[in-house]
Amino acid sequence: MSLMISAIGVSYLIQNLAFYLTGGLPKPVTNPIPWISDTISVFGASTKRVTLVTPVLTILLVFVLLWLTKKTKMGMAMRAASKDFETAQLMGIRINSVISFTFIIGSALAAVASFLYFSNYTTIAPSSGAMPGLKAFVAAVFGGIGSIPGAVIGAFIIGICENLLKGMKLTAFSDAFTFALLIVILVVKPTGLFGEKLTEKV
Description:
This protein has helices at residues 2-22, 34-37, 49-71, 73-83, 85-90, 95-117, 130-143, 148-167, 174-188; strands spanning 27-28, 39-42, 45-48, 123-124. By secondary structure, it is mainly alpha-helical.
């Protein structure tokens, strides 16, 4: 948890450094992935192709990550470290390598997500990724920290609920709903929907 909080702090440091260096002015986005940015018609409704590609790519990446964590040595080391940090270290697992590899995977996935996300926008600013990042954290907590399928299902639920609110012309409350959901899940089920039950030692 301390590493995760430190990462959030560093992200805000980088964000404010980018503000200082660029002046905070939005920069134009010129179709990073032209094919994905194309507009298509689905059942009479027009949308961008990225809307259809993103869920498929997300599910595919979930299966790849699950295979990675179950069938490879580094993946099993990651699972062991997430279960019991100290015991994994005593068993000879190089914790620093595991942490570095985990951050590499996370950064690569964030890069892919940013390409998909900003395909819908014409400009980008240093603070553009702050809210999606916070919502991703809420989705992870909602689904259960440490559960890859839980995080994906949590993200889908939050996304669907936000779009329903926008469809009901309650756009101003869409962000508030996400963080209200975080408060509710922390009160009712702190481990998330698919998180493991905490065992209390006596």
